[in-house]
Amino acid sequence: MRARKEVMQKILFICHGNICRSPMAEFVMKHLVRECGREADFEIASAAVSSEETGNDIYPPAKRKLTEKGIPFSRRAARKITREDYEYYDYVVCMDRSNLRLLRYIIGEDDAKKVSLLMAWKGENRDVADPWYTGDFETTYQDVVTGCRALLKAIDRK
Question: Is 148 a catalytic residue?
């Protein structure tokens, strides 16, 4: 029996400003793959559909939530997704339908079928609420963890 060749999976998480939900998903997913000893199998990053927060680090309440949950993170600068990112990454995972809509203006059509909603991986056709507006970082964190676990499981089944 031949061993299956592992192929690096490249995941880009997307939210509006790249300071709350998408960096939370980036660092949660990095934590999940590190826990199962598969860091070398993945490249994980995040970006925004807007340039409003370009250069800014993770929003402090999002950092506090990651710290509270024991999720390591590093300083980073928000950035906007590019067409080149779409071509490079295997999965472009959006936090809400507004991200999907705005993403089309940046990348055009999703001909390669790489774009999805995070919660769709869990079989739920719904958004991850933006804690910038709700102030509820716990609910956002729980959705991010649930969605990331489901995405990882789906990737493993391929």
Answer: no
What is the DSSP code string of 36-63?
TT-GGGEEEEEEESSSTTTT----HHHH
pLDDT digits (tens, 9 = 90+) for 91-128: 999 999 999 999 999 999 999 999 999 999 999 999 99
Catalytic residue status for 90: no
What pLDDT digit, counting tens, does each position of 130-156 carry? 999 999 999 999 999 999 999 999 999
Nearest CA among 44, 112, 50, 113 for reference residue 80: 50
Q: Which of 85, 96, 127, 130 is catalytic?
A: 130
Q: 152 to each of 19, 25, 121, how far by Cα in Å?
A: 22, 12, 9
Handedness of CA 88, 66, 141, 145 (dihedral sign): positive
Supply the DSSP string of 84-133, one letter for each residue: HHHHH-SEEEESSHHHHHHHHHHH---TT--EEEGGGGGT---PPP-HHH
Q: How far apart are CA 135 and CA 139, in angstroms?
A: 9
Q: Is 15 an active-site residue?
A: yes
